[in-house]
Write a structure and sequence with these properties.
CATH class: Alpha Beta
CATH superfamily: Response regulator
Strand content: 15-25%
Number of helices: 4
Strand order of the largest sheet: 2-1-3-4-6-5
CATH topology: Rossmann fold
Length: 122
Amino acid sequence: MMKTSDRRPATVLIVEDVGWIRSGMMRSVERYGHRALAAEDDAEALALAGREPPELILTEERLPTFGLLMARLREHPTLHALPVVVINPDAEDDELYGDCIVLTDYDQIGKVLTSTPGATNS
């Protein structure tokens, strides 16, 4: 597996309504050398993604607007193809929800970030 330092940093949009969880997710993303953007809900996420397009969206299934976020992403003309990583502690390891990758633990964020599609060789 390629080291993060050998890759171009990806922009990761974190969508999480709980401040301390959002901060922890941001620290995890930044620890792997990527740029973290943060939004509290679907509306803020779509507005931010329109201004600063991410290569990956990281969210949590318990987000109150999760269903709306997913529906709006699927309908969006440019964001519909973005990879979405969903954290759900009740899911099976690496379970796939439609076109989403599902993680069961926040510690697995690094596993995804070391193979982020938007991060390429420099």
